[in-house]
Amino acid sequence: MNKEIFLTSETAWCPGCGDHNILDALKQSLIALGKAPHEVLIVGGIGQAAKTPQYINTNGFCGLHGRSLPPAVAAKIVNKELTVIINTGEGDCYGEGGNHFIHNIRRNVDITQFIHDNQIYGLTKGQASPTTDIGHVTDVQPNGSNNIPMNPVALAITLGAGFVARAFSGDKEHLKEIMIEAIKHKGYALVDILQPCVSFNKVNTFQWYNKRVYKLGEKYDPSDKLKAIEKSMEWGDRIPLGILYKEEKSDFHDKISFLKDSKSLVESEVKTIKIKEFMKDFI
Amino acid sequence: MIYNILIGGAAGLGMETISSILEKVLKRKGFEIFTIQDYMSRVRGGHNFFQIRFGNEEINSHWDEIDGIIALDKETIDLHLGRLKENGFIISDEQVKIEDKRFLGLPLKVTSKGIGNPKVYGSVALGACIKLFDIDLSGVKEVLSEKFKDEIANKNFSAFEEGYKLVIPKYQIQPKNKDSSILLGGNDAIALGALAAGCKFYSAYPMTPSTSIMNYLASKMNEAEVVVEQAEDEIASINMAIGASYAGVRAMTGSSGGGFALMVEAVGLSGMLEVPLVIAEIQRPGPTTGLPTRTEQADLRFVISSSPGEIPKMVIALRNSEDAFYQTIRAFNIADKYQIPVIILGDQFLADSIRTVKPFNFDKIKVDRYLHDDEYINIKDYKRYEITKTGISPRITPGKISGLTVLVDSDEHDEYGHITESAEVRNKMNDKRLRKMECLKEELLEPELIGEENADTLILAWGSLYSPVKEAVKLLNERLGKNKYCSLIFGDVWPLPDKELNKYAKKVKSIINIEQNATGQLAGLIRECTGIECNSSILKYDGRPISSQEIYNKLTGGEQ
Q1: Most CB atoms within 10 A, among A154, A207, B76, B237?
Q2: pTM strictly above 0.95
């Protein structure tokens, strides 16, 4: 397949930003999976990462801040033929959109969510994000961030997500492998992608991550939930990368027979005759 | 001839069931029905009541004076006795102690115990009630067996029979001819309209008094193949509906004022992305939590101006159950045609008042999606936001056409949906979006004139006040001599249709606005859009629906 099919306009990201590698890995994953541009929908909220739909030739939906999940799951619910992927930042998804994050894991619609997690707000120029470490000094947190950083992967596992992984933008090949598995997974899949912000995060740099990350080995069993929770708690000197947890389970469509067994809702006819019959309930 | 029955008691006593049985029995006998319910925001206790008006002529409103009270507790009598007519009746248990010649203390409890189920108490009372009107028991069994399982239905029928023996007829009323009309509340009408329009996705968060739309749709989810999803909050509700609509199905959300307030940013998203959306806003008295189970019309100006920035949008105020059905369908068609949000504005009074409605004519329903998929099959270049004369750009279904993708963005964008900060493109895009309002104005529905063409006084109202104002105008003109009152009651409120208004405002001596809010929001809107000033107003904001009788009394100073 033509490698250029997903190419579109120039990005407005800083040179050296982790977003470039994430975008590359995403395009390569879609090519590896044999997807055509019209078969894919990329959804973003607001933020630098959330501009991804602008920089890739697929269907794209750049919505409101924090609200990438609701339109993404709804689009998938009504058109199961679409491959629906969210690319957005941790501020957008875990902060502003935290409630949707929690409840869409429970909803388990077959979509994939790539979180560009740079532990800082980039678009608004350097405030603390939900994953900023304690003590991290910013313009708005002059005494250092006081809030306990959120652990999105542990949270996702405990909420019942069927696919939870962590990747690093500095290792594009590994990122691509995980992306492919995440897109292939049936049901909601989360990949928290660590990435440096070269402009606004002078603490969690490429070197900072590179020194700490390591890959879960061949022997690691991602089907063991308690072990996965234990691994997902690891942060600091060593940060594990890879598929932390994976479980096959029925998804949203499986539980509604007319979604599971029929064609997509976008293709279905209006049941006018039945609806006319409903009037009889009121006689 | 019209009679008015009140059924009252504490929450949890089954008033809704009793009331719906009486409505159905009377409706199937061939009577016209108009019911309102007044309930408190609690699951048990308090005081709730239903008022059922029935008769053999058109009924457009509830009425304050009552012919009969069915009291399931003493409080009902204490609260409503003042409204009972001189020759009215009270049906209650014999143990209730009250000195009033209209009181019929009947052995309701003893009889229901004798039947073997104390819960059929209400059916004993209903049996007595219909006997007072000399209405026979035929058809009662069918209504009961639709409501209850066999044994319970039989016991309720026995209760009807026993109650029937307890009194002698007091009134005579002949029904109209039986017909195929239906008994429908406003929210059920909206839900049915949504299904008829081909809505495939409804996401909402429960909020009184809008929840019954979701309840009805959910009850038909599998049969009609419509996804009804309870969202985690109202922000999710509307953003989900926008996502579903973007992907190509008709989608809708609904809430009341407080929940709608949370949706406001996404109302703008629908306008900016040009993704069609229908939103039902079923008003209750605010601000904030207000009076959750009661009625008000105080969200008009809020809804019209909802959204940061300036977007094209339409607001349709629903006037009665029949209108709610057809306007919901029209809302979907307009949303699709102009790719805008359309808000249908109801209220608790409309939602919970049940009335006889002519069966809907499905042959008249036109569903046009205004999608351009077929035209684009062999075209290589697709501009989601192509600048056109009308402002409407061709819309295609994402994923349907190989080689074409659909990019939408909440940032200002160019014709392809790509972000831009160009001043020139910004102006072109903003103009293009707002231009759609000009075309929309051409297809607004003017309010029909009610009353006399050459009246002295013009009454202006909107939405659910259609019914009580219509009935009041009829009474005023009948009782006070002709050529006195006329009325324009707005359904389409934004953009505001002004042709009829301009015409009649010039002819009359005075203009009165009647609204269920404290600030006269329609009058303000009219002043802003047309410069026409109302001379006086009747404003009610205690949460209770205004009746035709109340309007009549206010306009005549109590003169009957």
Answers
A1: B237
A2: yes
What ipTM was estimated for this complex? 0.98
- Max CA distance (Å), chain B: 85
CB atoms within 10 A of CB A176: 21
- Whether B183-364 and B449-556 share one fold: the answer is yes
Q: Does A1 touch chain B (CB under 8 A)?
A: no
Domain boundaries, chain B: 2-165, 183-364, 371-443, 449-556
> Which H helix or E strand runs over B184?
strand B182-185
Output the tens digit of pLDDT for each of chain B's 560 residues. 999 999 999 888 888 899 999 999 999 999 999 999 998 888 787 899 999 999 999 999 999 999 999 999 999 999 999 999 999 999 999 999 999 999 999 999 999 999 999 999 999 999 999 999 999 999 999 999 999 999 999 999 999 999 999 999 999 999 987 788 999 999 999 999 999 999 999 999 999 999 999 999 999 999 999 999 999 999 999 999 999 999 999 999 999 999 999 999 999 999 999 999 999 999 999 999 999 999 999 999 999 999 999 999 999 999 999 999 999 999 999 999 999 999 999 999 999 999 999 999 999 898 989 999 999 999 999 999 999 999 999 999 999 999 999 999 999 999 999 999 999 999 999 999 999 999 999 999 999 999 999 999 999 999 999 999 999 999 999 998 766 899 999 999 999 999 999 999 999 999 999 999 999 999 999 999 999 999 999 999 999 999 999 999 999 986 54
- CATH topology for the B449-556 domain: Rossmann fold (3.40.50)
- Residues from chain B that touch A92, judged by Cβ atoms under 8 A, are none
Helix (H) or strand (E) holding B328: helix B321-338
Would you kindly state where each structural domain of chain A is located, as residue ranges? 18-282
> Which residues touch B44 (CB under 8 Å, ≥6 apart)?
B10, B11, B12
Domain B2-165: which CATH number of 1.10.10.10, 3.30.1330.40, 3.40.920.10, 3.60.150.10: 3.40.920.10
Count of other CB atoms within 10 angstroms of residue B423 = 8
* Cβ atoms B52, B19 nearer than 8 A: yes
Tell me the C-alpha distance between B183 and B325, whole Å: 13
Whether residue B452 contacts residue B508, with contact meaning beta carbons closer than 8 Å, is answered with: no
Please answer whether residues B33 and B354 qualify as being in contact, where contact means their C-beta atoms are separated by less than 8 angstroms.
yes
- Chain A interface disruption, residue of B405, B406, B408, most A CBs within 10 A: B405
Q: How far apart are CA B198 and CA A269, in angstroms?
A: 8
Assign domain A18-282 to a CATH class.
alpha beta
CB contact under 8 A, B247 and A75: yes
Which of A102, A140, A100 lies closest to A120 in space, CA to CA?
A: A140
Which residues does chain B have within 8 Å of residue A59's beta carbon, measured at their own beta carbons?
Answer: 398-399, 405-407
Which residues in chain B have their CB less than 8 angstroms from residue A278's CB?
A: 192, 195, 220, 223-224
Report d(CA B124, CA B117) in Å as an integer.
11
Domain B183-364 homologous superfamily, CATH = Thiamin diphosphate (ThDP)-binding fold, Pyr/PP domains (3.40.50.970)
Between B227, B397, B409, which is nearest A54 by CB?
B409
Residue A58 to residue B229, Cβ atoms within 8 A: no
CA distance B45 to B12: 7
Q: How far is B256 from chain A (nearest CA, A)?
A: 20
Burial of B364 (0-12, 13-18, 19+ CB in 10 A): exposed
Sequence-separated (6 or more) residues with CB below 8 Å from residue B374:
none
